[in-house]
Amino acid sequence: MNLQQLKVFVLTVELRKLYLVAQKLGITQPTVTFHLNKLQEELGLALFHTKSYHVIKLTEAGQAFYHYASQIHSLSEEASSTMDIFRGTAAGVLAIGSTHTPATYLLPPLLQQLKLNYPGLSILLDVRPAAYILEKVKKYELDVGIISNTQVDEPEFIVQPLIHDDLVLIFAPDHPFASVRDLIPGDLVEHPFVSHEPGSISRQLIDRWADKQCIQLQISLEISGTEALKAAVRHRLGYGMIAEAAIQEELAEGKLLSRPIPSWPPERQIYAVRHRNKLISPALRMFWRNLLDNFAFQRPDESHDKFQD
């Protein structure tokens, strides 16, 4: 078993067609078949249900083997890329996964700072749900994840809390809430509410909170998308509830006002997550330090140089 066989196997599973694997690797299709047959011969196990490979369907052994082969393949690619950096033949790539709020409102200035220090660095920013990002970090396919979540509890990860990401009330400057400092849950039922779409994480949290308070909000509009929701509130279609990180610009410009949601239980934070065994490239080291420098949630006993965990 060698790295080329593993690479052919992983690409076959992912691309599903042998001719696509051949094109990807710059080899012939019979060579692809040869590597797959040789790999199964050396393992003494059938990884696929058919020998023709017209239909790519893994056996139970093949599924188990793919779990490890994909990680070995990713680490091999990373090692090759890192050596290219040391040889001066590549500037390197930093792969970041992020949920919507940090990707839109927190990361751009940090990425700008990173590009100034590493002009040749290629940055991949993949904006996806938290569960997807954590899985990609676990498989070494992302260098770091920036996610909004209630908690992250995985022994394979180094997890750094950055800032709270709980929801706050937002409303137009001339809304009745602007003259009330201490709102109670009952105040919210008296005014139209611009809500997140059903099924979204924010909507689930809001519905759970409303149930606990035994109140029913006057939903005047349901919107999918943070920017659209903010625009609706600015145009006085109702008040809203949104992540505080998403409204800093509007607060600074006086376009929106905010208050804490009464009796809201703090639940969510924005975390930086990386794999404990992930190679720390110079770009990742700098990006991680910038995260700690720019957000005040750092634990007192954590050092900026703590990369050996």
Characterize the structure shown:
The chain folds into 3 domains: 84 residues, Arc Repressor Mutant, subunit A, CATH 1.10.10.10; 102 residues, D-Maltodextrin-Binding Protein, domain 2 (3-Layer(aba) Sandwich), CATH 3.40.190; 93 residues, 3-Layer(aba) Sandwich (D-Maltodextrin-Binding Protein, domain 2), CATH 3.40.190. Helix content is 44%, strand content 18%. The protein has a 5-stranded mixed β-sheet, with helices on both faces. A 5-stranded mixed β-sheet has the order 7-6-8-5-9, sandwiched between helices. Strand 6, helix 9 and strand 7 form a beta-alpha-beta unit. Helix 1 crosses helix 4 and helix 2 packs across helix 3.
Structure keywords:
alpha/beta; 18% strand; Arc Repressor Mutant, subunit A; single chain; D-Maltodextrin-Binding Protein, domain 2; disordered C terminus; 309 residues
Indicate the topology.
Layout: H1 3-15, H2 18-25, H3 29-43, H4 60-87, E1 93-98, H5 100-105, H6 107-117, E2 122-127, H7 130-138, E3 144-149, E4 157-164, E5 167-171, H8 185-188, E6 192-196, H9 201-213, E7 218-223, H10 226-234, E8 239-243, H11 248-253, E9 257-259, E10 269-275, H12 282-294
Helix pairs in contact: 1-2, 1-3, 1-4, 2-3
